[in-house]
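Entry:
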Amino acid sequence: MLIGYCRVSTRDQKPHLQLDALLQAGCERIFEETSSGSRRDRPELKAALEFMRPGDSLVVWKLDRLARSTRQLLETVELLEQRGMGLHVLTQNIDTTSAGGRLIFTVFSAIAEFEREIIRERTRAGLDAARSRGRKGGRPRALTDKDLKEARALLADPEITVEDIAKRLGVGSSTLYRYLPAARHTLQETFRA
């Protein structure tokens, strides 16, 4: 089954040209929406993809109607391929159900893998460069040694609650418990008394 997807960016734009082309291509169902191509959340595209079954093909007038970024396009193409579905792009004459179209799919997949590898390499290089300058990766500690010393001293006072100490240090109670498991025992002993 051919499933059409038609998108215009603004209410002022009219989808007539796309709709005519999709109908002429033989689409049995067309999903239409007004939305920026850069938006990730496009309900009608999602509905079209959910409606489709293996063996169906998504038909669009131009690639830019499907996605605005290469990453978004590659993600959509990979999703279609994983689900056993095809993609027809009318103005660019792409049909992934043909041998030439499958080659396009393969090229798209290779580009996506290449892009992921580049990102990994950049991340590794950035972390290595930061380490060589003495920086450690990861999130900074929520509580310093000085904060922990203060928390221990405050915990000794039975009138001060763990919640009060956490508030004073600007963290949640669970963070304080994570750094000072003994705080939980102190609290439990207070309730037993």
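Residues 52 and 188 are 56 Å apart (CA to CA).
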